[in-house]
């Protein structure tokens, strides 16, 4: 099989052939249906402490654009539904070729133009790879933020300004050390949906505590257009790099808000 992608011949409908877990009972993304979620007063805000990075790369890996610091930089996530501390690994994006599509999660069937994922791994494991393979939904914690078109996002501007330098698959650039990742996050990480799920790309491991924030972040139309200029490994626009929603089966989606 051609390496997995999002085209007709290698997209989500094909992934089960190499990854049978694609048809599992804890797959992501899902449609977050407000009439079916359950408020949990025990869900406290999350705390993300992101320290400045000495050397981080911004890269085009053929199916997304990704910010990745060198290993072990001391950035941590705690609180919310998490029982232990999680280490920051990377963030990346999913987007569409127009403003009516692009996000992986949906809210009452609505898609946003893009979705930003902050990936963290359970610090009781020796490495990210071990956390992915650790079994159960506590290996990774991924924060999902919807992006909608509006005001320019000054915190993401250093990243969206780098996109033209990673237009082609397999290219990367060094990110200036004064990039402030913390500034991307809202001041308080309060209102979110959370459920047990999976990686949304192969190997689709069911190792993720998903935490999807209710409040979208805004990016400008120009910033959205920057994503749409990125090319995938087949030389086509990367837009459309999102998996459709998967069945919820007998999972509960909890909210930290009423
Ligand atoms: N869209 S998302 O759900 O937020 C998501 C997050 C991370 C990855 C990932 O790291 N993939 C590569 C990758 C693996 F999938 C592994 F299983 C592994 F062990 C790795 F080391 C690795 F880099 C895939 C999807
Ligand atoms: Zn993702």
From TrEMBL:
One of its GO terms (molecular function) is zinc ion binding. One of its GO terms (cellular component) is cytoplasm. Its cofactor is Zn(2+). It holds the Pfam family Carb_anhydrase. Its EC number is 4.2.1.1. Belongs to the alpha-carbonic anhydrase family. This is Carbonic anhydrase.
């Amino acid at each position: 099989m051609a390496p997995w992608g999002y085209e007709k011949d290698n997209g989500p409908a094909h992934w089960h052939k190499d990854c049978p877990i694609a048809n599992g009972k804890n797959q992501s993304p899902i449609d977050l249906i407000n009439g079916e979620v359950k408020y949990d007063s025990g869900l406290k805000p999350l705390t993300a402490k992101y320290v400045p990075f000495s050397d981080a790369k911004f890269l085009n890996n053929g199916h997304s654009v990704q910010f990745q610091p060198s290993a072990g930089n001391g950035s941590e996530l705690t609180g919310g539904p998490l029982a232990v501390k999680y280490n920051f690994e990377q963030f990346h994006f999913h987007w569409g070729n127009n403003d009516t599509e692009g996000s992986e999660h949906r809210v009452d069937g609505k898609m946003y133009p893009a979705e930003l994922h902050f990936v963290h791994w359970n610090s009781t494991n020796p490495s990210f790879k071990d956390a992915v393979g650790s079994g159960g939904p506590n290996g990774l914690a991924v924060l999902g933020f919807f992006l909608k078109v509006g005001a320019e996002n000054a915190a993401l501007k250093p990243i969206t300004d780098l996109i033209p330098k990673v237009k082609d698959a397999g290219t990367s650039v060094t990110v200036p050390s004064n990039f402030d990742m913390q500034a991307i996050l809202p001041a308080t990480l309060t209102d979110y949906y959370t459920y047990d799920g999976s990686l949304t790309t192969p190997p689709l491991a069911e190792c993720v505590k998903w935490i999807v924030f209710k409040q979208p972040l805004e990016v400008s139309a120009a910033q959205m257009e920057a994503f749409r200029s990125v090319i995938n490994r087949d030389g086509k626009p990367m837009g459309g790099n999102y998996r459709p929603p998967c069945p919820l089966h007998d999972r509960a989606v909890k909210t930290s808000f009423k």
